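Tokens help. Our protein:
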Amino acid sequence: MENYFEVLSQCPLFNGLDASDFGNILKCLDAQSMELAKGTPVFLEGAPAQFVGVVLDGAIQILQEDYYGNRSVLTVLEPGELFAEVFSCAGLEAMPVSAIAIKKSTVLLLNCRQLFTVCGNTCRFHNQLLQNLLQVMAMRNLAMTQKIRYMSQKTTKDKLIAFLLDQAKQNGSSEFTIPYDRQALADYLGVERSAMSAELSKLKKSGQIDTKGSWFCLKELQHL
């Protein structure tokens, strides 16, 4: 696990903590690692909500299905990112989402409910972990607000433009790569893939963007 301490230092849950403490922290939180082949679930919807996950390697997709099996991608997580913390800390009995490896991945599972109980070892890092966890959940709420803004746009084109402009702003460049393939992007925005692909083709043909796969370059993309 020491091989992943550098990745853990990038995880917001471990902000302000020394790498020398990581071993004790992982022991205190009953940490266990999982190696996953592409397409393998970390957990499926309905599984017990017991753990918080950290992506150590690869990429994990968080998705939800409705009654009819229609899939909605909530986010894609890369090394150093945290997932399932809201559900675990909320005390839910079962996960309302699934987490799937979209490439060969390694994840770390932590029992963060340990943070809400009195530690027999009186670990000095408990308060810092709690502060970090609260901040992570606040940022997650902001991300969900952002997604709601995309989905509230009236048309597929408007949703795409809002998303792409935000990506350019977040990356500080008109050229960037998104963490979604085309199907996952359509699921994330809540649109049909065929309709989204048609709009992307129109934007490319009009010279407003250039794109290939997950790579985009904004040229003369018009604001909404």
User: Anything to note?
Assistant: The helical segments are 5-10, 22-28, 85-89, 126-151, 156-171, 182-189, 193-205. The CA atoms of residues 43 and 99 lie 6 Å apart. The chain is about 35% helix and 20% strand.
